[in-house]
Amino acid sequence: MNRAAMLWRAASILVAAGFIAAWQLVANLRLVSPVFLPGPDRAWAALVRGFSSGDLAGKLIGTIEHMAYGWLAASIAGIALGALIGSSRMMRAYVAPSLEFLRPLPVSAIIPVAIAMLGLTQGMALFVIAFGAIWPIMLATIHGFAAVEPRLYEVARSLQMSRAAIIAKIALPSALPDILAGMRLSLTVALILSVVCEILAGLDGLGQWVLLSARAFRSADLFAGVILLGATGYLTSIAMSLVEQRLLAWQTAAR
Amino acid sequence: MRTLSLDRTRPLLLPLALMLAFEAWARLTHLQSDSLAPPSAILAALGAALADLSIPIATRDTLFAAFAGLAIGSAIGLSLGIAFGISRPLDRLMEVTVEAIRPIPSIALLPIALIALGFGYRMEIVIVAFACVWPMLIMTRSAVRSIEPRLMEVSRALRLSATQRITEIVIPAALPRIFVAFRLSAGIALIVAVTVEIAINPIGLGAGIMLAQQALRADLMLAYLVWIGVIGYALNILLIAAQRRLFGRAALAGDNS
Known about the structure:
The complex is a heterodimer of chains A (255) and B (257). Chain A is an all-alpha fold and 255 residues long. Helices cover 83% and strands 0% of the residues of chain A.
């Protein structure tokens, strides 16, 4: 980062601090009832208190666990199914249109069906999160496989590579940017569905925490939970872009 | 002609076969279930719920909340996106603030909206609007930034005022990509609206499907699911058709941005 960029960054942080100060001012002057809007001081205090004496850390871990397990299951299944469908012309012709039809379906609509089948359980939450997160990954994988440079396949054929070798050595690496983009999208979906499932099924997690805080009108605790959810979304997406940069480094180097 | 008709029917083969197999299995085993129902029963429940207006009313509620939130959210996102796209300093100054708020999952605002606004349309509209601001802001910003620089030079040479520059140069030039952003936001609006209804808000299609589940009416629940799928699909098709009509096929090329 050069000097000018760092200055801009500092100015930008100052602006954000200004917004927080304005929020504090609004809360102090009681322009909005403190029942709805705690000041940043109270939200911060609730955050610290939740970690030191309450079970906020446990809730945070609960949400991250739901999100991570569902997302990992979706990633593995999505890439495998996507590779299966994407690597065969016949499967693409018969199966892909049905998937495209399902793509705009609001995935949360599957929640009642999952509740009817599995009850208000962890298993239900994992199923819903994985079901929601699988679509972007699977469709991206199919698209990535379909867009592989055809000459690479010709090379593979003349080298008499097996289908498994073609997938592992040619199709997967060249579809990787698409797959990673799909996985990044799914990360957001997984976080949202984790929160919804925790709200509905009362599972240990930040969704349950924010809902209970709202029911008890403990707005400072509520804001602490929302801040943590925002931080989770932010940090997971940063981690994802670091992984992306690392895994795709060979590609930018080749260009 | 034969290959053409095969191309058209092929996508339908798989879902049809699955449905027939499921129907046969349900009949043979005399399926009794709280979570599954044969396709014929689902269709019958869908027909009945359409006829007694419960699904049309729920659809109206959901679409009203989704579109109202979409209108508010995309108006905010559009104006911020244009402002950030035109003025690089403004964009840089707001960067940290935007990056801090954007990753908050829209559904996390649900409890805040709930205690501030109570159940009903208003809280749902606020959450939908929040969700729609970001794709609109990000994509409008990059659309405005990628406007041919010479167009901006022309506008300066013509001494257009700031408003004229925006309405006559910036918006027309960025419109195809802004519409793509709007189409994506519309899909998000529907998803968020249904999700809010399923989680907590007792109106619309989401509440309808939860009620059917709690009443152990598997046929009605799956009928709602099918209907929600049809609505999502129809909205998508409609907006893609509008996009082709307004901007031609070329506009679809920028879809992945």
